[in-house]
What does this fold into?
Amino acid sequence: MLDKSYRHIGCENCKSRNNSLFASFCDSDVDIMNSAKTCAFYKKNQPLFLERSAPRGVYCINEGKVKIFGRGEEGKEQIIHLAVAGEIVGFRAMFSGEPYTVSATTLEDSNICFINKADFLDMVDTNPSLRNGIMKELSIELAERATFVTNMAQKSVRERLASSLVILNDIYTNELINLSREDLANFVGTATETLIRLLKDFKDEELIKTHARKIEILNKDGLLKVAGG
It folds into this structure.
């Protein structure tokens, strides 16, 4: 378990806030948010919320990573986004008034803060910078989802894997890509067996190197070429 100061870090000391929708908050805004939020430690594979459940509030990632995914008719996961430190998860459903259309689960031990629905919507109403940031975020997400759907429909599995590895390399920044083969397959949108075969091909082509389940990118330009640019 992590120590108490880690689990209950204040917003004024949160390094991830500079990369979040709350980055422009003044001291008084930060005080309001501090009084409204709770913070908790989540173990790996612990759910934040489930598909078809009613939204209760938003989750702000202080440290860790969270996978956002839906399930097909046969129950297979399709990971549509990996959220990292600084990202706010779960705010989209509150504006639609509908239950969650996706689920969210931690990929690793994480420290995550929670703001309930009423307090968050009050912040949106009274803070123009937060409201504008959310509008921008939703616009970017719409464009990204359009690209995602196009890639799934038009690119081969090999191309999608190469593209996914480039995206994950940016997400994991200064560390090796650390996803289970099943999660990686669900991110790419393919069967685990197919993924394992293609990873071996990429290793043989010296595009990547594996360290147990972790993946090191050796040739990012080569992967981009495979992905189609």
Notes: The longest strand covers residues 57-63. Confidence is low (pLDDT under 50) at residues 1-5.
